[in-house]
Design goal:
single chain, alpha/beta, Rossmann fold, seven-stranded mixed sheet, two-stranded antiparallel sheet, 13 helices
């Protein structure tokens, strides 16, 4: 909670849901008529049939739009709801922030009747993203301890299918790899404030790498090195949907 109480104040200005990613998430929920969004933040990607949001940060809850699902201030690890409270539970770009992953997954399984949908990233692929690999490896190290391996997540869910979610070049949701073809965006402090890994790292850690990036953009070196990205419409940067159907559903 402390993370998003401190970095979440401008979250909605740079983290606008991307409709293409939204379509993938909503499709993965299948026929679920009721959904609980765990680690819900500012309501990004919540479908209209979301009946409750669970979010520990009051700063994030305060940014939820008028008309969005009722929010319960609670952590994923201890959700004060009855068993089988909704057809599906979803957790989007949140599991790597949980203090006790196993407890959080047990809670998802407990409150969902039929399906669990987790949108997350494969740390092995994400770590090779050019921003981290070439410019900000120190920032990447911050996430190393909390990143969740996809295989581990699928195992905790009792088995799951894993779907690749490629990121469009003009993605409107400013998470870490959203600007893979717009490198100048990472020089914007407001953009960095909406990316938890970078916001938590602090400028003292980031500035040497950002200075190298700025120099490479000015000289054209970045564009030469990454010419293969410039005509691409989308990129597999490691983002994944992990979908589990529950036996008791």
């Amino acid at each position: 909670m402390a993370t998003y109480n401190s970095i979440g104040e401008t979250y909605t200005s740079t983290r606008r849901p991307d409709p293409r990613i939204a379509a993938r998430i909503h499709q993965s929920l299948g026929a679920a008529a009721t959904v609980i969004n765990v680690g819900a933040g500012a309501a990004s990607y919540e479908p209209s049939h979301t009946v409750l949001a669970v979010e520990p940060s009051p700063v994030m809850i305060a940014q939820r739009p008028v008309g969005s699902a009722r929010a319960l201030e609670a952590s994923a690890e201890a959700i004060p709801l009855a068993d089988d409270s909704a057809d599906a539970a979803m957790a989007l770009l949140t599991v790597h922030h949980w203090s006790d992953l196993e407890a959080g997954i047990r809670e998802l399984i407990r409150i969902a009747r039929r399906r669990i949908v987790v949108f997350t990233f494969d740390p092995d692929i994400n770590r090779r993203f050019w921003l981290l690999d070439e410019y900000l490896p120190e920032a990447a190290a911050i996430d190393d301890a909390r990143a969740v391996a996809i295989d581990r997540l699928a195992t905790l869910l009792g088995g799951a299918r894993v779907e690749t979610v490629p990121i469009p070049h003009d993605c409107t949701d400013g998470f870490l790899a959203a600007f893979w073809r717009r490198p100048e965006a990472y020089l914007d402090p407001q953009v960095r404030a909406g990316i938890s890994m970078l916001a938590q790292s602090g400028d003292a850690i980031l500035q040497p790498g950002l200075a190298r990036l700025e120099a490479d953009l000015s000289s054209g070196r970045w564009h030469q090195r990454h010419a293969d990205l410039l005509d691409r419409e989308e990129l597999d940067a490691g983002y994944r949907l992990v979908v589990a159907d529950l036996e008791h559903g």
